[in-house]
Amino acid sequence: MRLDPPEELLARLVDAPAGVAIVGDDVAQARSTLEARGHLLHHVEADRWRLACAGVHFSPRRYAAARRGRLGHHLEVWECIDSTNLRARQAGAAGAPEGSVWLAEEQSAGRGRQGRTWICPVHAGLLFSLLLRPPRTSQAARQLLPLVAALAVCDALRDTTGADVRLKWPNDLWLEERKLAGVLVEARATQDAFAAVGCGVNCDVAPEVFRAHALRNAISLRQSVQELPAREQILADILAAVERRYAQWLEERTEELVQAWRSLDVLVGRDVRVDAPEGELRARAIGIADSGELLLRTATGATRRVVAGEVHLL
């Protein structure tokens, strides 16, 4: 995998905390690009510069060494960005190729479902967006794509960390009954259709950070995994898993995908409250339909299908 000049320079700076020589117009332009993306560079002496947070920064080079498969061939790294999904959507509209990834150490306007803000301290998570360009498909197929993306991330986290990560409809990932990660898919169904698959994973967030923001239901991998893999490895594994599940989705292997989801469903058999567009509903979750809707059993014994809504355990 060949890194673009800004990522190549960033990799050098991460590998050399004492600083590197920045000589030549091309390298100087790469430095300007990194500074525009929020990376804090300090002038050491003469032509030497260092990255303030080199010791904890995501390394494009380590990621490139771990990456495999078709997705993730192009990586753009930001120190601080408003939203990686916004950047992915803009690039998608401008013709960026499928498989491109935008990663940020910090987001100023990271979003979850229902317009919520995603909170994660700098260098403590894995915040990225992946651009997919699915062919024009039916509404039923498009409805499954967010679940497929969440399933892939769950696959990767379970395999990479050994943690018992589970799925909470429609696209949250839970660990030890708390939220570990979330997926947000924003798609444009036009002739040049694309989908921005945004993902936020709490990797090394201290519990007191969650308490400070009253996030009682949040957890990070560090709280459950004794030997936490490097974030570069986790990202590479997630993209490989997305490629595998995405291929199944393209091949319309719906039954296989839905069964895999059901095997990891944290809601099935539990009483829930759903804040849906049509109002609040309290019932028992009994799984997901073949088309991806949440299935509920009401107190009267009737079965209800929920297409969209926020689910809370009772």
Q: Element order, helices and strands? A: HEHEEHEHEEHEEEEHHHEEEEE
Shape assignment: globular
Tally of helical segments: 8
How far apart the termini lie comes to: 47 Å
Please outline the major beta sheet: 7 strands, mixed
Q: According to CATH, what is the class of the largest domain? A: Alpha Beta
The second-level CATH architecture of the largest domain is 2-Layer Sandwich
Which structural category do the helix and sheet elements fall into?
alpha+beta
Radius of gyration: 20 Å
CATH T-level fold name of the largest domain: BirA Bifunctional Protein, domain 2
Strand content: 25-35%
Q: Which spans have pLDDT < 50 for at least 5 consecutive residues?
A: none
* Strand order in space, largest sheet: 4-5-6-10-9-8-7
Total beta strand runs: 15
Structure characterization notes:
The chain is an alpha+beta fold and 314 residues long. The chain folds into 3 domains: 52 residues, no CATH class; 203 residues, BirA Bifunctional Protein, domain 2, CATH 3.30.930.10; 43 residues, Roll (SH3 type barrels), CATH 2.30.30.100. Helix content is 31%, strand content 29%. The protein has 8 helices and 15 strands. Strands 4-5-6-10-9-8-7 form a 7-stranded mixed sheet, with helices on both faces. It has a 5-stranded antiparallel sheet with strand order 14-13-12-11-15. Helix 3 packs across helix 7 and helix 5 packs antiparallel against helix 7. The model has no long low-confidence stretch (mean pLDDT 92).
